Amino acid sequence: MAKQDIKPRVRVPKKLKKGELFEVKTLVKHPMETGLRKDKETGKTVPRNIIRSLHVKYNDQDVLSAVWHTAMSANPYTSFFVRAQDSGPMTFRWTDDAGEVYTKEITIQIEG
To answer: How far is CA 79 from CA 35, 97, 105, in A?
Structure first.
């Protein structure tokens, strides 16, 4: 299967203070094929292809590691909280069953 045009989205507050707890919201467009559906034309089972993991790092420190299973919906949305420590990169890495990796990097800016 060819790599899909998948563009993860991430949203965090623009202004943060050191020590502040903030919410991180992610959305990734992915069909999350369960492996239970049959192709209507061929009658063959469509192979399973779901995002099986999400790993998030903030300034090279792990802040979230999630393993997903078949029951996840298509276009999975994730929300979690992190404490703002220092300005720096937050990297997101989604991996699906086909071995495709989708990444997104944002910069966390701490004021004051």
So the answer is: 26, 22, 16
Which class does domain 10-34+47-111 fall in?
mainly beta
Q: At a CB cut-off of 8 Å and minimum separation 6, what does 103 contact?
A: 8, 91, 92, 93, 94
Hey, what amino acid is at 57? K
Q: List, for residues 60-71, the tens digit of each pLDDT value.
A: 999 999 999 888
Going by their DSSP bridges, the two strands 9-11 and 110-111 should be labelled as unpaired
Rounded CA gap, 48 and 45, in Å? 9
Average pLDDT of the residues of the chain: 92
CA dihedral (11, 33, 50, 44) in degrees, to 10, reads -160
Mean pLDDT within 14-28: 96
pLDDT at 4: 65
The pTM score is 0.89
